[in-house]
Specification:
Elements (H helix, E strand, L loop, with lengths): L8 H13 L15 E5 L2 E4 L4 E4 L2 H4 L8 H11 L12 H18 L3 E6 L2 H15 L5 E5 L8 H5 L16 E5 L13 H13 L10 E2 L4 E2 L1 E6 L15 H11 L3 E5 L23 E4 L11 E6 H4 L17 H16 L2 H22 L3 E7 L2 E6 L9 H11 L4 E3 L2 E6 L2 E2 L5 E4 L7 H20 L1
Parallel strand pairs: 3-16, 5-6, 5-9, 9-10, 10-11
Antiparallel strand pairs: 1-2, 2-3, 4-12, 7-8, 11-12, 13-14, 14-18, 15-16, 17-18
Helix pairs in contact: 3-10, 4-10, 7-8, 11-13, 12-13
């Protein structure tokens, strides 16, 4: 095991400047000293000392198609040379064709007509969705959301994100959420199958509507105080928790009975992360609104947006000027988004991602058999989880995972004579879950390499 890494003289100069001039409001240093990176390609990033790191989180799933993807990079370069910018109140071909692509796909999959509205990123698109929802429900500002859910850190988005830490110092501005337990089977009641626990969670939610005295429903007029239920079909920051397949179908039935919209937040799990364009597709339900971002442009140019049912977003109910951003539907972002759709339509990305995910999950299950500190592994496509626990295989062990993350960033592991680092992301209710979101373009040898590097970190953690 190596000693603590010391920043180079050049890096230290930059770190001193960062300490003096940069806001820490959007900065979290998970390791000390922080790494400064200089280049990237495929599944790897390199620091200023040219040390390579295999990245198994890909910028929180924003870079689904690999760093510096040549095809997507070229689409951006070509757009820069033709129409790099135009005010968002004016039309350009990319906005129209990308909207059509998303809306036609939704029609084919869900049987619903709808429209697309763009903004510059995920949190901003959540804000737009809140406007659509409130407008369509006569101004209702109360929402349901899940414990463990994460929807962003702008004011509206943080109000429906379950972590009080993100909104504690800012108060509330309109939206409020009631947080409902998510079917987190590994930490749920014992004695139930995953499907039984999913049904149990729905039944506990449904009881809120049994009587007016449960606080959310007026049976005399048949109205709920709540406008929508914001769901991440697979929880992201919450630890890549994958619910039972019956859960959303049963939940949607309750919502439809009481006139409550379902908003599917696909910002982290969309664009084939789970083997489908939208992760909600796995669960046989029709969402009312879809929110997307991140991997639409492979992280190259900020672009997010929403798709909503025609009844919620047509020009009569959601007229011009309802919401606006200077950089919404920017031509650089829409050009990359269009190329991403063309690329994924040429290859069966669904089958490819599911096969790679199965291979990766089998490797994690093998590690689980050999290392008792792995309490749970699960995955859907290339959204995978590995929960680090105490010796009992259940008690959350954040300290051990923090140690593994720090060791991975030392860049001193050796596999087949090659020195490498490993970039991991930490999630989960107890911050003890490795949330794995590798590039969808990752090769099978790279998956095997990732598993070998994980094994070395587990050995270090076990023997420390």
């Amino acid at each position: 095991m190596s000693d603590i890494r010391i920043a180079s003289a050049e890096d230290q100069i930059l770190l001193d400047k960062e300490a003096k001039y940069c806001s820490y409001g959007d900065t979290v240093h998970y390791i000390e000293p922080p790494r400064i990176f200089s280049r990237c390609e495929g599944s790897y990033v390199w620091d200023t000392e040219d040390q390579a790191y295999l990245d198994l989180q890909m910028w929180y799933s924003a870079v689904n198609f690999g760093y510096a993807n040549p095809r997507l990079n070229n689409a951006l370069k070509q757009q820069i040379d033709t129409l790099p910018q135009i005010a968002s109140q004016y039309l350009h071909k990319g906005k129209i064709e990308l909207s059509e692509m998303i809306a036609v796909d939704a029609k084919n999959k869900f049987g619903l007509d709808g429209r697309v509205h763009f903004n510059v990123g995920g949190s901003q698109s959540i804000e737009d969705s809140l406007k659509v929802v409130r407008n369509a429900t006569n101004g209702k500002s109360l929402m349901f959301a899940f414990e463990g859910g994460y929807h962003g850190r702008t004011l509206g988005a943080s109000s429906i994100t379950s972590s009080y830490r993100y909104r504690r110092r800012y108060g509330h501005f309109g939206e409020r959420a009631q947080f409902i337990p998510f079917p987190y089977h590994f930490r749920g009641p014992k004695g139930m199958t995953k499907e039984e626990y999913g049904s149990h969670c729905v039944q506990q939610f449904a009881r809120l509507f049994e009587t007016e005295y449960n606080g959310v429903w007026d049976p005399k007029v048949g109205q709920s105080e709540y406008a929508a239920f914001y769901v991440e079909p697979i929880q992201g920051t919450g630890g890549y928790v994958i619910p039972p397949m019956n859960f959303y179908r049963e939940l949607k039935h309750v919502l439809d009975q009481h006139g409550i919209l379902m908003v599917s937040d696909e910002i982290q799990m969309g664009f084939y992360r789970t083997g489908k364009l939208w992760s909600i597709e796995h669960f046989d339900v029709q969402p009312d609104v879809i929110v997307f971002g991140k991997a639409l442009t492979n992280g190259l140019n900020p672009l997010g947006g929403i798709w909503a049912r025609e009844e919620l977003i047509n020009p009569k109910i959601f007229p011009p000027g309802s919401t606006h951003s200077t950089f919404a539907s920017n031509p650089l972002g829409t050009a990359v988004g269009l190329e991403m759709f063309k690329m994924t339509n040429e290859v069966d990305y669904g089958a490819m991602v599911m096969a790679k995910g199965k291979f990766f999950l089998e490797g994690l299950q093998d590690l689980q058999k050999r290392f008792p500190i792995i309490g749970d592994v699960d995955g859907l496509g290339l959204a995978l989880r590995c929960e680090i626990c105490g010796p009992d295989g259940f008690t959350p062990d954040k300290a051990t995972l923090d140690y593994m993350v720090e060791e991975g960033m030392k860049g001193d592991m050796v596999v087949d004579g090659r020195k490498l680092g490993l970039i991991l992301d930490v999630g989960g209710y107890y911050k003890n879950v490795i949330t794995l979101a590798p590039s969808l373009e990752i090769s099978y040898p790279e998956i095997e390499l990732g598993l070998k590097l994980l094994e070395q970190l587990l050995v270090r953690a076990t023997n420390r």
